[in-house]
Amino acid sequence: MRINATVIPSLAMSNSLLATLVLVVAVFAVVMGIVTYLTLLERKVAAWIQDRYGPNRCGPLGLIQPLADAVKMLFKEEFIPARADRWLYLIAPMWIIVPALVAVAVVPLAGTVEIAGQFVRLQIADINVGLLYIVGVGSLSVYAVVLGGWASNSKYSFLGGLRSTAQMISYEVPLGLTLLSLVLVSGGSLRLEEIVAHQSGYWWGWLPRWNAFTQPLALVIFFTCMLAESNRLPFDLPEAEQELVGGYHTEYSSMKFGMFMMAEYAHVLVSSMVLAVLFLGGWSFWGLRDEQTAWYFALAKLAVLLGKAGLIIFFVMQIRWTLPRFRFDQVMRLAWKGWIPAALALLAANALLLYWMAPALVYTLANVALLALFVFAGQFSRSPVTGRQLSLRAVESELQTTNP
Amino acid sequence: MTWAVMGITLFVLLGVAFVLGSLLAGKLIRPSIPHPQKGEIYECGEPTVGDSRIQFDLRFYVVALVFVIFDVEVALLYPWARVYLQNARTAFVDLLFFFGVLLVGFAYLWRFGYLDWVRSSAGQQRGGQTSGDEDIAA
User: Fold this and answer.
1) pLDDT grade, residue A242 (50/70/90)?
2) B19 vs chain A: nearest CA distance in angstroms?
3) Residue of B85, B94, B111, B115 to mutate, interface with A, max A Cβ within 10 Å
4) pLDDT of residue A111
5) B16 to chain A: nearest residue by CA?
6) Distance between B135 CA and the closest CA of chain A, angstroms
7) A387 contacts in B (CB within 8 Å)?
């Protein structure tokens, strides 16, 4: 049994030097612009959920607020703890933002565009191990959190850094396993352009062949892990304000604090784009095809990709302002006893279905069945009794014996 | 060096330049009025006691160890997934064998409570440890 992966002819060519240069600068500028405005969007969403106005003083609807914030951060005096390790303290904010941004380099933004008779693929680097690159780069940011927590020499930072390490490495395992399932069902390709191409086309003439429909369990696991990796609620234990002040960035001020803030939003943006590419067909949409290379089609494709990412980001923000935070043992339990077995089972199920050459609907059914099974089993999986519960019980039984 | 690698390198360099540039700009224009109390770390206004680099819980170490095992497994499976369709039957049997070996270790970890975060106090009470969260209210 031998099935060749689908290869688009245009994949063979490579961008020219000038096109690469222009793309790098343009993508960087656009991503930084979006990241800056995500801070405003987050505050607006928070205000909307909590029935307030949100920032509305700087410019119409508060639209200049991000610039005002940037200026404020530049002008703030910086406090560096006297006993901090100054070099590591400096490296941490630099290290956290670069990996978060760099993952966007392999995301296929809008197919191919024809400019002045020259075909340019709107993707900075079309490498054939794109998915592996994203996993690798994504896991680099854990170092920054550890460094930030360690170098500050503050107890809050240290605790936040430790927790974050445990959390991020725990959720990396189900993330990697889920992406493996995705590689399997995308014809064994790790190249993001091919994963997108694999999702083009329609079932019954109208339903897009997105991985979200055939792999719902993978989508759920990936989304959870994405929240955990970017330290967003309900997984924001590393910087739980109410107990750890700011976690690993407690001791950071002025522009270095700004770096940590920007990195969080860069993470959210980049992982939303990756999710859109992997599960929601990237730039594919009704009426858009790969062979449309005029510039307005490229713009439309870019708008589709950013629109999908925007919807995911909006959902992530809604989650932040509506869900409470997990307890740390619950976070670890979800990773090790929930998603890792689920991702292993999903990988085995996908491999088996692929061997049988099952139709797409069977994949969906298998995913839903596995998800239902794990939710059902979760009802019977009990967390161990904590010391606090034991002492509570002792007090209660004592109360019952003394005054019945 | 292919264009793809160059594109990524350029992107990384641009990112580093942006970070260095904005940190340097901040350094040049912000005020600096040193004071010994500004060098204190934040601890709710209390004077800090001791160093913060203290001995921490061993459980973090166990998590890291287990993570390494699983992550190596994931890394090993990527080439497997790439060529799966070329010989699906053999590849599937390989996967089952691989999982089998791994799941023995996983079952061991699960059985002896290494996957439980709040193990330390539960381990002392081997008898009644299976009751759940809702027992707090009872």
Assistant:
1) low
2) 6
3) B85
4) 77
5) A98
6) 8
7) 118, 120-121
Long-range contacts, stretch A304-310, CB < 8 angstroms, 24+ apart: A305/A109, A305/A110, A305/A273, A305/A276, A305/A277, A306/A34, A306/A273, A308/A276, A308/A280, A309/A269, A309/A272, A309/A273, A309/A275, A309/A276, A310/A272
- For A218, counting Cβ atoms within 10 Å of its Cβ (0-12 exposed, 13-18 middle, 19+ buried), the class is buried
Distance from CA of B54 to the nearest CA of A (A): 9
- Residue reference for tokens 């050459």: A357
Domain assignment present for residue A318? The answer is: no
pLDDT digits (tens, 9 = 90+) for A322-354: 888 888 888 888 888 889 999 999 999 999 888
Type of residue at A398: E
The partner residue sitting opposite A74, judged by closest CB among B29, B52, B67, is: B29
In our burial notation (b when 16+ CB lie closer than 10 A, e otherwise), range A284-300 reads bbeebebebbeeebbeb
Contact residues on chain B for A98, CB-CB shorter than 8 A: 12, 15-16, 19
Q: Note the pLDDT of residue B119.
A: 59
The residue in chain A having the minimum alpha-carbon distance to the alpha carbon of residue B34 is A79
Tell me which residue in A74, A104, A183 faces B26 most closely, judged by beta carbons.
Answer: A74
Of A117 and B130, more confident:
A117
In chain B, what residues touch A348 (CB-CB under 8 Å)?
95-96, 99
Domain extents in chain B: 59-118
Residue B72 burial (C-beta neighbours within 10 Å; 0-12, 13-18, 19+): exposed
pTM: 0.87
Burial class (CB in 10 A: 0-12, 13-18, 19+), A17: exposed
* Complex ipTM value: 0.81
Is pLDDT larger for residue A26 or for residue B58?
A26
Chain A residues whose CB is inside 8 A of the B49 CB are none
Residue of B118, B120, B124, B135 to mutate, testing the A interface (most A Cβ within 10 Å of its Cβ)? B118
Q: What does the mean pLDDT of chain A come to?
A: 84
B88–A355 CB contact, under 8 Å: yes
DSSP A199: T
Q: What are phi and psi of A121, to 5 degrees?
A: -90, 130
Q: Give the closest of B25, B56, B133 to A383, CB-based.
A: B133
A246, A158 in Cβ contact below 8 A?
no
Show the domain range for A266. Answer: 77-307+326-381
Number of H helices and number of E strands within chain A? 16, 4
User: How many folded domains does chain A comprise?
Assistant: 1
User: Mind listing the pLDDT tens digit for each residue in B3-33?
Assistant: 778 888 888 898 899 889 988 888 888 888 8
